[in-house]
Fold each of these.
Amino acid sequence: MSQKVLVINGPNLNLLGKREPDVYGAESLASIEDKCQKRASVLDLEIEFRQSNTEGEMVDWIQQAEDNFDILIINAGAYTHTSVALLDAIKGTTTPVIEVHLSNIHQREEFRHHSFISKAAKGMICGFGGFGYEMALDAASNILKNG
Ligand code: DQA
């Protein structure tokens, strides 16, 4: 049976393609999801792709993941830089977490350099646009096979 990956996207990522295309590119979240579904089937992974603009809903999803998913991929959007609640939720779960960002957050404003998610994530991929999600799936497959 395929192992299951939950991909959580945070606030404003529903606007990808229209939102600051110079920073985030022209690709929509639906197109990124489509590519992830294809990569997942090559890797024999099952993925569920979600987006929320609400911090509490993301906390709920992280808490519930343990029962239904083997690994999490998270782009927490702006909550990356502000949310102790998301950090605590990740610390409180045994499900491994991979952090993703489309942009290279370290080349941007100072306030984006710090990530609460990184404190508890297995690793972080940033700066590769939508392709970063596919890289995260490869990393997820490797973690699930080799730890
Ligand atoms: C982002 C980077 C964050 O700083 C920003 O708030 C986002 C998107 C990224 O994918 O590059 O919403 O997480």
Amino acid sequence: MTRKNTDDAAGRSAAGTPGSFPAIRMRRNRQADWTRRMVAEHRLSADDLIWPLFVREGRNTREPVPSMPGVDRLSIDLAVEAARHGADLGIPAIALFPNTDPALRSDRAEEAFNKDNLVCRATRAIREAGLNIGIILDVALDPYTSHGHDGLLIAERIDNDATLEALVRQSLNQADAGASVLAPSDMMDGRIGEIRRALESSGHTDTILMSYAAKYASAFYGPFRDAVGSSSTLKGDKRTYQMDPANTDEAIREVALDIAEGADMVMVKPGMPYLDIVRRIASELSVPTFAYQVSGEYAMLMGAANNGWLDKDRVMIESLMAFKRAGAAGVLTYFAPEAATLLSKT
Ligand code: PBG
């Protein structure tokens, strides 16, 4: 019998002595808290968390989102306080989403270009508070369209190229308001390149583009649509622009294109059901890859926790750690403040 000169997969050493039990006991490294900490391959901290916030009109008003227990739509003054709380916890960035008055939604999404729209006012107010926290704004027309789609419609079809012009106007408006990061979530073709060119030629050379590059047509966005008020308005579905959950190679092409067009960071969405995509992108493309633990994932965990079926704190931390293990640079999560608080105690 020829001996291999390297250890084989079962841990047998070159000399042929069995490198297995009892010489090897995997449990030795797990025996105490201090050894487990010493060999931990991944760590989770507040630095990994991005906090999505829903904003609404009014003063000193918070309005619960029934399908997202623990999440409220906040008036701008309370959003400023939330941002301050996030900054105090060491959370690096918040992502703002407006619940736009239905009367301001239209076919052509004009409210997206209004420099005094809700999300722009919220951004300015948070900016003025001078906090050490980044502000991420979504680029997509769904908070502003009467039909709830991310793009403009001609008859029943999304007009990709007309939408690009609208997304560029929305992007410049939001960059002017003080967004540090623009996160196009619309999945139109060519949008990263168009937005990047417009930012460069208007002096917004430092605006970061975090592209929702691999965004799937998912049923897990339901509670978010309740929160921003587009559930009831959305006609049809988003499958002609968001990706088919059956695909993975396509995600690699989407991300490669967005990087080539000028994205600084990319995102995968939803999160937990798509960890394979996070891993492939992080490994194959070496680009800062974020994951969005979306509203439906949050609702699922909170629903079970509130019924006493799951331990909330533990599933929260375990689910967030899974993103790190998959290679994510960070996670957008509605658990951000709670997770950061818990992590600061351990
Ligand atoms: C809008 C947008 C959506 C989410 C983020 N930006 C919903 C959608 O595409 O329909 C989902 C976030 C979540 O579910 O938490 N383009």
